[in-house]
Design a protein that fits this description.
The protein is an alpha/beta fold. The chain has three domains: 43 residues; 319 residues, 3-Layer(aba) Sandwich (Rossmann fold); 40 residues. 47% of the residues lie in helices and 15% in strands. It contains 17 helices and 13 strands. α4 packs parallel to α8. The longest helix has 42 residues. The N terminus is likely disordered.
């Protein structure tokens, strides 16, 4: 009887062990399935982009841009935030390349008023200037680049320095054409005069910008010099006009240029955050909520260029701007370059010497006029304070390097689509 009880006890324990093992096995299977499903749900959103990136040719951003000149006269590059610096490292690589110097040689930019062009051209094509004189001229062009009281974005100084340094040692020199609307602070003495000169709505700025580029290009092409790189910021580079959320038609320089040049021109977008209006302010978000950036991150790609045509990227809805349109990315741009991820992009404003000693009085004169234009009486009053003026000067003459304002949020959105 005791033997039977012992056997029964062993059988009971055996059954329990078997059941426990089954439960553990089923639990592990369930956890695996949950994990797999979670992984799939995270990656399925970026899988089409990742799959596309796996199969295309890995052509660098620089080589892609230069390649476009083989079959096109005009390449329009959409600038990121004016202050983002790494894009100008890419532009420097393009301008420095032997193919660009020998076969293109012309650069147009949105930034830089048209009336500066003769003086800038003379400077950029004069070799072996004294280094102190070069720096002084670069500062002068920076100080007078726009209809704002100062252009604080360091990239303009860097671009002009790049062109000067290239031309100083090269036989095939680069010709540079600032193309923004004409504006001369010497003709503006009052806020009324500033209002008159600064009001471009009678003839929208984008049409003037496009006209300035086309008019100068005609002079070049008459001399059989037909290729040019054009740098335009954000919507100015769109090759379509857009409709704002309130129904207003927004006319873009890129559309005017696309109409004029036709298939001779190609437009290229670079990776960048987008502007989204939340309440009464604009904030940065990522294209398609970060899916694009996540795919490049997953594939460990920092430098590539490709066409939008027949690509999953080009077929995506165009969300670079909040507007009423049914466009796809391939309708607005012909190609795309990814150059450095969000972590490796930096905004740089101000630099030592931006407001030089000999420019201080003129700077504050302009600053006051623009504050009056915006009816900022509080700051106008503050200008009377020596301490306030010194604070402003210190800020503008000290380099500021920073990430995008909501950098952590951008990274978080991108990494939502990535697995640990």
């Amino acid at each position: 009887m005791l033997c039977v009880c012992i056997k029964a006890h062993h059988i009971t324990n055996f059954v329990r062990n078997v059941n426990t093992q089954k439960i553990m096995k089923n639990t592990l299977i369930l956890l695996f399935l949950i994990s797999t499903f979670y992984s799939f749900s995270q990656n399925s959103a970026i899988k089409p982009y990742s799959d596309y990136l796996k199969k295309i040719e890995k052509k660098s951003a620089k080589d892609y841009i230069l390649q476009k000149f083989k079959n096109h006269d005009i390449v329009i590059l959409c600038e990121r935030d004016h202050s983002e610096f790494s894009q100008y490292e890419l532009i420097k690589d393009v301008l420095s390349d032997a193919y660009f110097k020998n076969n293109v040689g012309n650069l147009f930019t949105e930034i830089g008023v048209l009336n500066l062009q003769p003086e800038i051209t003379e400077f950029l094509k004069t070799k072996n200037l004294d280094s102190a004189f070069v720096e002084k001229k670069l500062n002068t062009f920076q100080q007078n680049a726009t209809f704002w009281f100062i252009w604080e974005r360091y990239n303009y100084h860097y671009l002009l320095r790049t062109i000067y340094d290239i031309n100083n040692v090269s036989q095939n020199q680069i010709s540079y054409f600032p193309s923004d609307v004409e504006f001369d602070w010497k003709t503006v003495q009052t806020v009324e005069e500033y209002t008159r000169e600064q009001d471009f709505e009678i003839e929208p700025r984008d049409s003037l910008l496009a006209y300035n580029i086309i008019n100068q290009y005609k002079k070049l092409s008459s001399k059989n010099n037909k290729k040019a790189l054009i740098i335009l910021n954000y919507r100015h580079a769109f090759k379509i006009h857009t409709t704002s959320n309130n129904g207003e038609l927004v006319k873009n320089a890129g559309k005017y240029l696309a109409d004029y040049f036709g298939n001779r021109a190609v437009s290229i977008l670079s990776n960048r955050p987008i502007f989204v209006k939340k309440e009464n302010r604009y904030v940065y978000e990522l294209i398609h909520d970060g899916k694009w950036d996540a795919a490049f991150k997953e594939q460990d790609i920092e430098n590539i260029g490709f066409d939008f045509d027949n690509s999953v990227f080009g077929n995506d809805d165009f969300d670079l701007i909040s507007a009423k349109n049914n466009a796809k990315y391939k309708d607005v741009f012909d190609g795309f370059v990814f150059y450095k991820s969000i972590e490796n992009q930096h905004l740089i404003e101000f630099y030592d010497g931006l407001v030089s000693k000999d420019f201080e009085q003129e700077f504050f004169r302009r600053y006051k006029i623009q504050l009056q234009y915006y009816e900022d009486s509080t700051r106008v009053k503050k200008l009377e304070s020596k301490e306030f003026r010194e604070t402003v000067l210190k800020k503008l003459n000290t380099t500021r390097k920073r990430k995008y304002p909501n950098f952590e949020h951008l990274i978080e959105r991108r990494d939502t689509y990535l697995n640990d």
